[in-house]
Write a structure and sequence with these properties.
alpha+beta; Rossmann fold; Thrombin, subunit H; 7-stranded mixed β-sheet; 17 strands; 24% helix; elongated
């Protein structure tokens, strides 16, 4: 009996060691007889606001689609392992309509919610369509879900991309507010299946659109030789990771004349690559990095509010 306990104990310790090893090292993939190390994904912070509803009467049978739809999209984005998600109940607009927001508004919402990217959307339609066949003797009704969402860069407030998606259901059956949005009972209905498909397509487009952007962290503390940033273990950073420090030339705002108005319009502030930074301490919500000797210059000083850009890490 004692021998069996020792064998079981050694087996559990071996499994624990293998688990820790797999969590701390990149995955290896064999291809064509050779083995290579896959890239480590750094998690980007993404915010989704509440969805505007263009036709509220069409979604009376749905349990709060304005908040449920972005919540379910965020859940799938988080499950992908590439994002840290946030949700705001507010619309990305100064009124009840989902109009194009100003860059300043996008920047403010991103800063308030600690997000690198901001996504805002609208449920444009959930109407029923009637198709008559056989000279009007046969009529079939189907319900469709139509949404649109836009992605913005939270650091600059710049518009990045937009998607307009449409998914029909098999019939025009109502779902019912007794079924919680995103629940198994909700997705078991025909219209729930259509919504499930549009959520999956939305998350796929977002992953594709943001895949080539680097992860960017904000500098929250700075001195002559070190900086603190608002990203750490939760973003998949590790000690030894290197980033590029990016600072604004606040003395040189980029202004110009808008084609629609005679008043000057501020387009943004030029940025300067200051140099490299290497992480020397990584905690769950933050990290500390050491600046390279050439990072500080006479033209731009690293300060709180500047950014560190992390490209692909291995």
């Amino acid at each position: 009996m004692y021998l069996h306990k020792n064998i079981l104990k050694n087996l559990l310790l071996s499994l624990l060691a293998l688990t820790q090893l797999s969590c701390s090292t990149p995955t290896t993939v064999a291809s064509g007889g050779s083995t290579h190390i896959t890239e480590r994904v750094l998690k980007k912070k993404i915010l989704m606001t509440g969805f505007a509803v263009a036709q509220p009467m069409q979604v009376q049978d749905l349990d709060d689609i304005a908040q449920g739809l972005p919540r379910e999209i965020l859940r799938r984005l988080e499950n992908s392992g590439a994002f840290l998600t946030r949700q705001s109940k507010n619309l990305l607009s100064t009124n009840l309509k989902q109009e194009m927001p100003t860059a300043k508004l996008v920047q403010q919402i991103a800063a308030d919610n600690d997000a690198q990217f901001v996504i805002a959307g609208e449920v444009r339609s959930a109407n029923t369509r009637s198709d008559k066949k056989y000279w009007g003797l046969w009529e079939s009704k189907t319900r469709q879900i139509e949404i649109e969402f836009a992605i913005y860069d939270g650091m600059s407030g710049v518009f990045l991309s937009r998607h307009h998606l449409l998914r029909p259901a098999e019939d025009d059956t109502k779902i019912g507010r007794d079924k919680t949005f995103g629940s198994s009972a909700f997705y078991a209905t025909n219209f729930g299946k259509a919504i499930d498909a549009i959520i999956e397509e939305s998350s796929a487009w977002i992953r594709t659109d943001l895949a080539h952007y680097p992860m960017i962290a904000k500098i929250i503390q700075a001195n002559a030789s070190q900086v603190g940033i608002d990203a750490g273990v939760t973003s998949n950073l590790r000690v030894g990771d290197q980033g590029l420090v990016v600072a604004d030339y606040v003395q040189l705002p980029f202004n110009g004349m808008s084609s629609q108005q005679s008043q000057p319009s501020q387009y943004g502030t030029p940025q300067a690559s200051m140099g490299k930074m290497k992480l020397i301490q990584v905690q769950y919500p933050f990290s500390v990095g050491e600046l390279a000797a050439e990072t500080q210059s006479d033209y731009a000083k690293v300060k709180v509010g500047d950014y560190v850009r992390f490209d692909v890490q291995k």
